[in-house]
């Protein structure tokens, strides 16, 4: 039986005179890879930023796994169960790959600051469990050999994998990936596709913004197409690809 993970309706956002989003809504089922596509400036990143609490919407309702949530702050959204990555990678560059994942995992721990300061047995136990789980996640995304390397020394493709591991560390209901293939070469893209497929097989749910249409069409169960802040199509990739409005939107901007 299908289970709705994310239900968003009526999202609008204006920047001064520019209507960046007009009445946008999406509906994602558990285990789906859902794509958000559209020409440059269509409103994809704005939608992601609204969804994850970076921008306050002018209107909209939000429900995650059947519970309403208000995306007022990034940490509230993380607590509700959405983890995201960014178009311009946001890792802690001077920390090791392992430490970067551990930071993500810490959002799920109980001991708190006092436990850390006094290094209580509870804290040490929890810390060991976090390190173990974080190593497993590095293995899962295929970069365990770089566990002790500083994040900034990893290749672009591996840094994106590390961001995904860090997002997974929060045990999210939904993982939102903002252009995960940006800057990747063809081989890295093949590996990324395998990784996203694996994440889906493990019954996770993914929302994806991606410019690489081939990747989107090959990976996504459903897609929504935005153009000038409006939703011009929604459906299975094969249907959407044939939609006249979508073809015109892409041709019109030279895509
Ligand atoms: N913080 C902001 N202040 C003012 N205008 C903004 C802001 N963020 C986005 N916009 C505008 O909103 C519109 C939608 O931008 P957005 O970045 O969401 O598009 P996009 O679909 O993600 O584009 P791209 O594919 O180029 O990343 C654009 O016209 C952009 O200039």
From TrEMBL:
Q: Which PROSITE patterns match?
A: ABC_TRANSPORTER_1, ABC_TRANSPORTER_2
Q: Which domain of life is it from?
A: Bacteria
Entry's SMART domains? AAA
- UniProt keyword terms in alphabetical order: ATP-binding, Cell membrane, Membrane, Nucleotide-binding, Transport
* ABC transporter domain: residues covered: 6-253
Name the Pfam families on file: ABC_tran (PF00005), BCA_ABC_TP_C (PF12399)
The membrane spanning regions, by residue number, are none
Keyword Manganese belongs to the record = no
In alphabetical order, the GO MF annotations are: ATP binding
Q: Which InterPro entries match?
A: AAA+_ATPase, ABC_AA/LPS_Transport, ABC_transporter-like_ATP-bd, ABC_transporter-like_CS, BCA_ABC_TP_C, P-loop_NTPase
PANTHER family according to UniProt: AMINO ACID ABC TRANSPORTER ATP-BINDING PROTEIN, CONSERVED COMPONENT OF ABC TRANSPORTER FOR NATURAL AMINO ACIDS-RELATED
Q: What is this protein called?
A: ABC transporter ATP-binding protein
Taxonomic source organism: Polaromonas jejuensis
């Amino acid at each position: 039986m299908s289970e709705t993970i994310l239900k968003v309706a009526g999202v609008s956002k204006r920047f001064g005179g520019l209507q960046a989003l007009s009445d946008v809504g999406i509906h994602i089922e558990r285990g789906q890879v859902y794509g958000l596509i559209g020409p440059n400036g269509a409103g994809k990143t704005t939608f992601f930023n609204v969804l994850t609490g970076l921008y306050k919407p002018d209107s909209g309702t939000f429900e995650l796994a059947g519970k309403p949530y208000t995306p007022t702050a990034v940490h509230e959204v993380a607590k509700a169960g959405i983890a995201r990555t960014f178009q311009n990678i946001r890792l802690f560059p001077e920390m090791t790959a392992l430490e970067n994942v551990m930071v993500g995992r810490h959002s799920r721990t109980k001991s708190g600051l006092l436990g850390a300061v006094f290094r209580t047995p509870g804290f040490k136990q929890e810390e060991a469990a976090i390190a173990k789980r974080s190593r497993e996640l590095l293995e899962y995304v295929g970069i365990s050999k770089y566990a002790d390397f500083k994040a900034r020394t990893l290749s672009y493709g591996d840094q994106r994998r590390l961001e995904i591991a860090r997002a997974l560390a929060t045990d999210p209901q939904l993982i939102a990936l903002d252009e995960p293939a940006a800057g990747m070469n063809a081989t890295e893209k093949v590996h990324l596709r395998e990784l996203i497929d694996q994440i889906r097989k493990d019954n996770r749910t993914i929302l994806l913004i991606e410019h690489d249409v081939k990747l989107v069409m090959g990976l996504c169960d459903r897609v929504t197409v935005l153009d000038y802040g409006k939703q011009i199509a929604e459906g299975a990739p094969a249907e959407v690809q044939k939609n006249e409005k979508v073809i015109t939107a892409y041709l019109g901007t030279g895509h």
